[in-house]
Amino acid sequence: MRGLDVLAALTALPLCALSCSNVLLPPSEHGVVHARTMDLGSWSDFELIAHPPASTEEFGYLGVYPTASRFHEIGVQMGVAAGMNTQGLSCDMQTLLKTKYPDQPTPDDDKEGVFVAFVCEWALKNFQTTKDVKDALKNTHTVWGPTKFSFDQHFSFRDANGNSIVVEFLDHETVISEDKNDGKSGFGIMTNEPPYSWHIENVKHYEWKKGLAAPIIEAPGAFYPDHRFIRLHNLKGGLEEPKSNKDLIMNAVHLLNSVTIPPGLIMGTDSGEGEGEGDHTIFGMVYDHTENVVYYRSYDNQSLQRVRLSDLGLDEIGGAKKFLPIVNDQKWFIDSARSFRRIP
Fold first, then answer.
1. Distance separating alpha carbons of residues 301 and 103, to the nearest angstrom
2. Which end of the chain lies in a sparser environment, N or C, as judged by fewer CB atoms within 10 Å?
3. Nearest to 289 by CA among 54, 131, 86
4. Is 83 helix (H, G, I), strand (E, B) or coil?
């Protein structure tokens, strides 16, 4: 790995995913869909970059890169904060405070090292399913990261079969949790600290309270990680059964709405000291793993923008990379005046 690449990652990723929400929709005949937010303070320099495969051993993918435009001219490769490949595998990076990574492997170790900033790139290039990622992390690769920077991250992987894993680094060990979206191993939801297992037990305890003879259950309305997790759980459980792929996508958008943080001085976020206006949602994404489509919207344009991976030439080996800023000049409204009809 080139020194400039590591330096760029160290510069960008402490700001990359301070608080985020991630939710997989209930199983449906109309597809496998999940959604996420990217929540930060006052930073919006993200780009979508389409990466065709470099060889027959790789897969093409669409990735979200932080501050990518700063490094185009000098040829530095940034790390992917979120993305999906042509096989329907997604990877999402989110902050988990107090993360402690395994040691960097030495040349004599039996595993290869993957720097934390490049985990999503590594996974999207090389794997088709969450099982593939899990097997590699158990048998052939170790994720490592710095100890002197605010670089605490964990990862959600989801695939076209509806399978999910959450990967965390606790006390210098890699912890892989299977989330079967079944209410036992997991709920198809990931936010931020505390670690994933705490949230699972917290939801189970919440459900226990609801089942008592005379319960009083609070409705969590803030944007702390545990509030967002519980809120997504409650709303997800009450969704209508989708009758089409569009219904499924709209269900995902409605869930995004429940955890989208407006710009400004918003109370009840997990902003750290000195973040000024605190967290707000820079962008939201909806992944359609079945159709290989990504929908997204930004804080200054709430209209959904759609990218079909098949339209980007991602099966062309050695093809040209393409990019589009997430905060762009696409239309942010539909002008409906001409669609009005005369009443007879």
1. 42
2. C
3. 86
4. strand
Which residues are bridge partners to 40 per DSSP?
280
Buried b or exposed e, range 159-185, using 16+ CB within 10 angstroms? bbebbbbbbbbbeeebeebebebeeee
CATH number, position 201: 3.60.60.10
Two tokens at 11?
């510069």
Report the Cα 199 to chain-centroid distance in Å. 17
> Exposed, middle or buried by CB within 10 Å (0-12, 13-18, 19+), for 339?
exposed
Q: How far apart are CA 283 and CA 298, in angstroms?
A: 4
In a domain, 231, yes or no: yes
Is 114 a member of any domain? yes
Extract the tokens encoding 137: 């992390």
Task: Answer whether residue 339 is part of any domain.
Answer: no
Nearest residue to 145 (alpha-carbon basis) of 8, 9, 2: 9
The structural domain count of the chain equals 1
Residue pLDDT tens, the chain, 344 long: 444 455 455 555 544 446 799 999 999 999 999 999 999 866 668 999 999 999 999 999 999 998 755 555 555 567 899 999 999 999 999 999 999 999 999 999 999 999 999 999 999 999 999 999 999 999 999 999 986 666 899 999 999 999 999 999 999 999 999 999 999 999 999 999 999 999 999 999 999 999 999 999 988 999 999 999 999 999 999 999 999 999 999 999 999 999 999 988 888 888 765 555 568 899 999 999 999 999 999 999 999 999 999 999 999 999 999 999 999 999 999 999 999 999 99
For residues 109 and 34, give the distance between their C-alpha atoms in angstroms, rounded to a whole number.
Answer: 37
Centre a 10 Å sphere on the Cβ of residue 273 and count the other Cβ atoms it contains.
4
- Tell whether 131 is covered by a domain: yes
DSSP element (H, E) containing 173: strand 173-179
Residue with tokens 């990622």: 133
The span from the CA of 195 to the CA of 207, in Å, is 19
Which range marks the domain in which residue 37 is found? 3-329
